[in-house]
Design a protein that fits this description.
Strand content of chain B: 15-25%
Order of helices and strands of chain B: HEHEHEHHEEEHHEHEHHE
Oligomer: heterodimer
Largest sheet of chain B: 7 strands, mixed
Helix content of chain B: 25-40%
CATH superfamily of chain B: Thiamin diphosphate (ThDP)-binding fold, Pyr/PP domains
Strand content of chain A: 15-25%
Shape of chain B: globular
Radius of gyration of chain A: 21 Å
Structural class of chain B: alpha/beta
Structural class of chain A: alpha/beta
Strand order of the largest sheet of chain B: 2-1-3-4-8-7-9
Number of helices of chain A: 12
CATH architecture of chain B: 3-Layer(aba) Sandwich
Bound molecules: thiamine diphosphate
Shape of chain A: globular
């Protein structure tokens, strides 16, 4: 039988990273993810692995770069302002195809903002975030259990595709506690890394670089990256659905808002409104196909976010002309309640029901 | 016939992109010779900066990574922490180390990382076209100090080596130059020592600053550039051992 343990999201993801086999953690303090470095500072040395508090997020991501270049599994974690500082390094790492995991426990923004939960970094996370034409895989846990499971998955994907994987959580998921199990998680099987820097012993020199000046070699790299991204889109798109088959209105939400909207959908059903729910688990690649399919029937889509409307743009792209795409959101650290979302569903659906009648 | 000099294996047989009279080529050779003489080729990992030496991996035949501008000490830290048995060095210009990467070198030193840093100070930003660096001398004309650097407007030339020497995390810091053969030999000795300390597992960072010519952006002939180091640059950046805790 699997043992249930009570953990907060930040600790759950930390232990999952250790189980997956992370060799090195580098990070700089920022709320609401401070439980991660505190956990790692205690646990990593116990495992004979590396924990180091860096002087900044700039340094942290570059330490991750170094460890990854040396062929090791490395990670960092931060929250919104710190993730902004890491973007240059993430761009370099994606160009150099360095596997690594970056956790963003989002907080309210812009600016220093506040330390309340937010989903305001969706654009930054799913559009690359730094300079140049690259992507990171973005995983969005919806519970404390998934903070563990998807962080574990993040290492698998990073290693498999030689890419930076971002776990995009928020302050609520980071802080709240739930009973979870970790027994099913095992050390990941890593790929051979003949490209790693280990010293050129008995082989030619290895070079990891991102300056590509000769002829069209930079375009060739770009094409290669795009091919990897296409493959990831085909193989790794993940989502969850609930009561979508007969739904007149489909709520689309990720992370903590997916929990809230799912409860609102159940309540709406009790009131006779045919509501359904789609939860993107990978934000990049975005699960467009399922939405495109669902939009073939006449339906209303409602994106709910803790932002002023970011993911809703991807929902619109997926739905195309297939149906109205509406948005409800709270930003600046505010969290929508179940009743608030329900009220919103009712406001949309009652006139619809009237129209049909 | 007796062979008295040959290319050391860790330097590749190729042309470089460096301008005539540039000092980077000399410093590359000294680093490569050191690596070969100490027998550490098989376990050395180098960090190339953003700057004129960005292509150092095309000339030095060891494992190397090219990193964001100024972040070499952080990347070096990441490598050394996961591969403590390897020899890790960064090779950085003065814009890279003294300006945009000032925090990274300060903190790598402060953490007493067991690293070797080769710091090539040419008093300008070479790669981007000769702009003023923190190390630019007063009155020196650059593209962004067209009337000559003034204290009133840009402050004083920054002496990073002296600053780092204050930190207990630095174990060996020496400032050298390559303006004549005797100085080149001294630089070689310093570089050897900076690597040897890492091999010995000494607890702390070793740094060799090399005053190096940039005839192109100093608007001087290679010979005049060497003279300018000797006569002007060394007044602000005095040569010699700044710190050696191993003595
Ligand atoms: C973040 C960032 N800012 C600016 C640049 C542009 N840049 C490239 S090299 C360089 C200066 C390098 O000067 P230095 O470190 O003194 O080395 P040198 O070229 O003189 O050897 C700058 C500013 C960059 N590549 N990245």
């Amino acid at each position: 039988m699997s043992e249930k343990i009570l953990m907060c999201g930040n600790e759950a993801l930390s232990e999952a990273a250790i189980i997956a086999g992370v060799d090195a953690y580098f990070g700089y303090p920022i709320t609401p993810q401070n439980e991660v470095p505190a956990y790692m500072a205690r646990r990593m040395p116990q495992e004979g692995r590396v924990f180091l508090q860096s002087e900044s997020e700039l340094a942290a991501i570059n330490m991750v770069f170094g460890a990854a270049a040396a062929g090791k599994l490395a990670m960092t974690s931060s929250s919104s302002p710190g993730i902004s500082l890491m973007q240059e390094g993430i761009s370099y790492m994606c160009a150099a195809q360095m596997p690594a995991v970056v956790v963003n426990v989002m907080r309210g923004g812009p600016g220093l903002g506040n330390i309340s939960p937010s989903q305001g970094d969706y654009f930054q996370a799913t559009r690359g975030g730094g300079h140049g034409d690259y992507r990171t895989i973005v995983l969005a846990p919806g519970s404390v259990q998934e903070m563990a499971d998807l962080t574990h998955k993040a290492f698998e994907l990073a290693d498999l595709y030689r890419i930076v994987v971002m776990v995009l959580a928020d302050g609520l998921l980071g802080q709240m506690m739930e009973p979870i199990t970790l027994d099913h998680l095992k050390p990941i099987k890593t790929k051979a890394k003949p490209w790693a820097l280990t010293g050129a012993k008995g082989r030619k020199q290895n070079i990891i670089k991102t300056l590509l000046l000769q002829g069209n070699e930079l375009e060739v790299l770009n094409l290669k990256l795009q091919e990897v991204y296409r493959q990831i889109g085909d193989e790794q798109t993940r989502y969850d659905t609930y009561q979508v088959e007969d739904a007149d209105i489909i709520l689309v939400a990720y992370g903590i808002t997916s929990k809230i909207t799912r409860a609102a959908v159940s309540k709406a059903r009790q009131k006779g409104i045919k509501a359904g729910w789609v939860r993107p688990i990978t934000l990049w690649p975005f699960p467009s196909k399922v939405l495109t399919e669902l939009a073939k029937e006449p339906r209303i889509f409602l994106a709910v976010e803790m932002s002023n409307g970011q993911m809703v743009e991807d929902v619109r792209l997926a739905v195309g002309g297939g149906g109205p795409v509406l948005f409800y959101g709270r930003a600046g650290g505010a969290v929508p309640t179940v009743d608030e979302v329900l009220e919103h569903i009712e406001k949309i659906m009652l006139p619809e029901v009237m129209k049909k009648a | 016939m007796q062979k008295v000099f040959e290319r050391t294996p860790s330097i590749k047989e190729c042309h470089t992109h460096y301008c005539p009279g540039c000092g980077h080529g000399i410093v590359h050779r000294l680093v490569a010779e050191t690596i070969d003489e100490l027998g550490i080729h098989d376990r050395t990992i180098g960090i190339a900066p953003v700057g004129c030496a960005v292509l150092a991996y095309n000339y030095m035949d060891v494992d190397m990574v090219e990193v964001p501008h100024g972040r070499a000490p952080a990347v070096a830290t990441g490598i050394k922490r996961v591969l403590p048995g390897n020899i890790v060095f960064s090779y950085q210009g003065d814009g890279d180390l003294a300006s945009i990467g000032a925090a990274e070198i300060l903190h790598a030193t402060h953490r007493a990382e067991n690293l070797t840093v080769i710091f090539v100070n040419n008093a300008v930003y070479g790669m981007t076209g000769g702009q003023m660096a923190p190390t630019t001398l007063n009155d020196q004309v650059t593209s962004t100090s067209p009337q000559g650097r003034t204290v009133k407007h840009d402050g004083y030339p920054l002496q990073v080596s002296e600053i780092l020497a204050v930190l207990p995390g630095s174990i060996y810091i020496e400032r050298c130059s390559v303006y004549n053969p005797a100085q080149v030999r001294k630089t070689k000795k310093a570089i050897q020592k900076a690597f040897q300390l890492q091999i010995d597992g000494a607890e702390g960072l070793s740094l060799v600053e090399v005053l190096s010519p940039c005839p192109t952006y100093w608007r001087k002939s290679p010979v005049q550039a060497m003279k300018w180091i000797e006569q002007e640059m060394t007044k602000v950046f005095p040569l010699g051992c700044i710190k050696d805790t191993t003595l």
